[in-house]
């Protein structure tokens, strides 16, 4: 009997240990304030931090020192890959008699269409165009999600009552606990020096 | 065939089948003491007393009960302060004790104000609510007000006569209404009316506050707010050319006249055939025309879409488009040639005898188009195009100048309305003009897409010249900070999208349909552009007009930097010209149809040259561009470079891409 009532030690430590901290949030009232604060956070070397605002604030990217995304470059090359894929696909199926393994054995089938050469670029271009767009669009879509860490159904910030006003009229700076510069007391002090109207700790 | 009797039986049965319905309909509509047949009961029959009927329950047997003497509706008793807003015969200065002041009260008041009052008075109380906006639209209708004649605007609560009113008086206005405004006692409970009145006072305060009124904890330094935009100089110094550009104008005129004169001279001393010269003239003149047409397109599209971002760069576009009122001069040589009957080598349809002698097969085809392709109709059409273009080209400039002189936004609204007919007429005229002046150079050939192709050419030339103009203006120290890299990026996008990608799209679509169908009288036009040197010329067109600038401009960075954008615009402008050369100059050899194979035709014309190196082409281009520039500079100097009172100006100055 005593064996069954005794909780396993692993479970106990999980339940008893204080919840891990996700980070600190500081609340600001105006775009101008968060702008200044963001510049300070940027200059003080934090890496894992973010600003949450109810609307896009012009110039905030710069104040935060956000680097250019490399998405456009990837998308460009994905588009080019689409162009090439379409060209290869069409020239293989319409203009070659090779047999290749693509899951099953497939053989190209040179097919004479209205007396055009088998390899006739003008006829290929519409498909090349479409696949360029398709590849570019799909990779934009997918990579945008991937880079942003989406889909994410839960975020610790959502539990914070104050943070709800981030979609209404307040501006927040979040410094995450995983930042190497993060020490709770020191970061708190630093945030205080930014003159926010409130600072809170967010639990993970 | 079933027996005839069956038909009768079926017909009879169908008739009988209708009897029940007829009976029901009759019973339902005929007067009768009994209850009508009611198929769907709803709540029509329920035990209740109708008005003015008997109720034996009461002594007087009236179903409608009178009020008992001395009854007061619940919630309507209160002090005169609370119910009437009056204290000792004067309007109350403070809230009644039933509705004490609190943040909740004000927030409630704001909520109620926004629900009940903002429709007329606007969210901030200036009397500019949605109702007023609609009324203003109706009143400003060109044919006079639509509904009725008079409109009393909801009064601004910031009007001094209202601002100085006491709380009680405003409460009274809400309760009983005032003059044209109805009372809200019936809809809004008393507490809420007080809440609204309190909120109105707060609203008034918010629009009439000094720095001292703001709690110190809430103030911030003025420079803290100014992070967004550096102060933009909107004085004459920054948006008028003033004395600048005078020499440039004269120099351009000088260069233009010299170049044209030199071109004529070269032809006179026999360096070029007159036919070739007039074709080169046509090419260059149409190129200039495309610049202005592209600018006109830019202008009306901004109005059509009510675009705000472009206000800062619209004046240069308007000026470029206004050149359409003299560009018709370039057409005069063709008018004279046509009237003299000497245009047969340029427009073959104008001299059918010559065409029949030289190319009977083509003449046979063209004969069928004589109803359209004949000199009088051709000239009438040209007249229509010029009138339409000159009208719209100058109208938009004049309306915009008018807007620059008045605070009233009526000219802008008129321009937005005018943009619709402008778009339709622009589409028709540019299509038919290119059919007439470019496509009919090879009268047997046709492509329904040709008009769109020319339109994309106009976008190429117009947008690139607009970009060049803006950059040159800024280089000369005007429009500083007014035109920003954000505007350049968007102009670059337009040039990229319309002038390049769309051009390639249309050009390829036109090519592919003809290539695929492979009908001799259609393919000849493209074949002529593949013979000899023309093959390379066409390949360069594809690469120079599309592939190279596509890769160059696809990223946003080259569009945001004026140097790279200037380079791209000049490049594309050149290829706009090159494209016109490709369209106008090649002559389709008459014997193309008789060759057995494509290779044979190519062999036979292997030595065909494009003649693009001939100095006359370049002299004409430089000459016409210079004269165009001279007129444009003159007009830029004559007007402010920005419509300072445009209602969209602020949007445009603050514009940022994301």
Give the secondary structure arrangement, pairings included.
The complex is a heterodimer of chains A (204) and B (658).
Chain A lengths: L1 H4 L3 H8 L4 E8 L2 H13 L5 E4 L7 H5 L6 H25 L3 E4 L1 E4 L13 H27 L23 E6 L7 H10 L4 E6 L1
Antiparallel strand pairs in A: 1-5, 1-6, 2-5, 3-4
Helix pairs in contact in A: 5-6
Chain B lengths: L3 H26 L50 H5 L1 E2 L2 E2 L11 H19 L8 H10 L20 H4 L3 H10 L13 H17 L15 H4 L10 H4 L6 H23 L5 H31 L6 H12 L9 H8 L12 H7 L1 H8 L7 H31 L4 H28 L12 H26 L9 H33 L2 H9 L4 H21 L2 H5 L1 H23 L13 H7 L10 H24 L10 H5 L5
Antiparallel strand pairs in B: 1-2
Helix pairs in contact in B: 3-7, 6-7, 10-25, 11-12, 11-16, 11-17, 11-18, 11-23, 11-25, 12-16, 12-18, 14-15, 16-17, 17-18, 18-19, 18-23, 19-21, 19-23, 21-23
Structure description:
The complex is a heterodimer of chains A (about 200) and B (about 650). Chain A has about 200 residues and is an alpha+beta fold. Chain A has a domain at about 70-145. Chain A has seven helices and six strands, in the order ααβαβααββαβαβ. In chain A, the strands form two sheets. A four-stranded antiparallel sheet of chain A has the order 2-5-1-6, covered by helices on one side. In chain A, a hairpin with a 1-residue loop joins strand 3 (about 100) and strand 4 (about 105). In chain A, helix 5 (about 70-95) runs antiparallel to helix 6. By secondary structure, chain B is mainly α. Chain B folds into two domains: about 85-210, Cytochrome Bc1 Complex, Chain D, domain 2; about 245-655, no CATH class. Chain B has helices spanning about 5-30, 80-85, 105-120, 130-140, 160-165, 165-175, 190-205, 220-225, 235-240, 245-270, 275-305, 310-320, 330-340, 350-360, 360-365, 375-405, 410-435, 450-475, 485-515, 520-530, 535-555, 555-560, 560-585, 600-605, 615-640, 650-655; strands at about 85, 90. In chain B, a hairpin with a 2-residue loop joins strand 1 (about 85) and strand 2 (about 90). The longest helix of chain B has about 35 residues, at about 485-515. Chain B starts with a helix and ends in a 5-residue tail after the last helix. The interface between A and B is medium-sized, with 18 and 17 residues.
